[in-house]
UniProtKB/TrEMBL annotation:
This protein's name: Nicotinamidase
Origin: domain of life: Bacteria
The Isochorismatase-like domain, residue ranges: 4-199
EC annotation from Swiss-Prot or TrEMBL: 3.5.1.19
Membership in a protein family: Belongs to the isochorismatase family.
Length: 201
């Protein structure tokens, strides 16, 4: 069975000192590097949040405060600080992440009008990123997922992976939650387990 490692959004803005820093995010990087060192993966894919500066998920572009919610193209949208803007240092992968064995990069969140938490598709399920096509082309059946943040982009990448027919495993030690609300990370784990995702570690 061919397997791939999906490394979600290990970018400067989500790490320590970043515009949308995930608590303890930097702690997952050595774990992810060790996974790549100790395991043989047929593919290693990075996802990268890659927003235009005028993205509608940014509070600053809606005259809203961070933490508020609006309805954007028919679905609720949390208002985030400006982050992972195309071409900026914040959008770059963290320097400590070993990329020597990476075989593919998927950029998401490029459409100004809609956010894209999942590595597979936007939040409206209108546009695919090409990740599923890439994995199917390479006959991948098993996905192991790590990265940031557990209660948003990691969770939605995992649930879309299951929906697309992949055996899906989350490495608990390779992810951290934003925890906008204290229970978000815990709830994300419960939600993923209910959807058939195996949580390792």
């Amino acid at each position: 069975m061919k397997k791939a490692l999906i490394i979600v959004d290990v970018q400067n803005d989500f790490c320590e000192g970043g515009a949308l820093a995930v608590p303890e995010a930097n702690e997952v990087i050595p774990y992810i590097n060790l996974l790549m060192e100790e395991n043989e993966y047929d593919q290693i894919v990075l996802t990268q949040d890659w927003h235009p500066a005028d993205h509608k998920s940014f509070a600053s572009n809606n005259n809203r405060k961070v933490g508020e919610s609006i309805i954007l193209n028919g679905i609720p949208q949390f208002m985030w600080p400006d982050h992972c803007i195309q071409g900026t240092f914040g959008a770059e992968f963290h320097k400590d992440l070993n990329r020597d064995k990476v075989t593919h990069i998927i950029q998401k969140g490029k459409n100004t009008e809609i956010d894209s938490y999942s590595g597979f598709q936007d939040n409206n399920h209108f546009m695919k990123t090409g990740l599923d096509d890439f994995l199917k082309y390479h006959e991948i059946q098993l996905l192991e997922v790590v990265g940031l943040a557990m209660d948003y982009c990691v969770k939605f990448t995992c649930t879309d992976a299951v929906a697309n027919g992949y055996i899906t495993c989350l490495h608990f030690n390779g992810t951290k939650a934003v925890n906008v609300k204290p229970e978000n990370g815990r709830d994300a784990i419960y939600d993923m387990i209910q959807k058939g995702i195996t949580v390792l570690g």
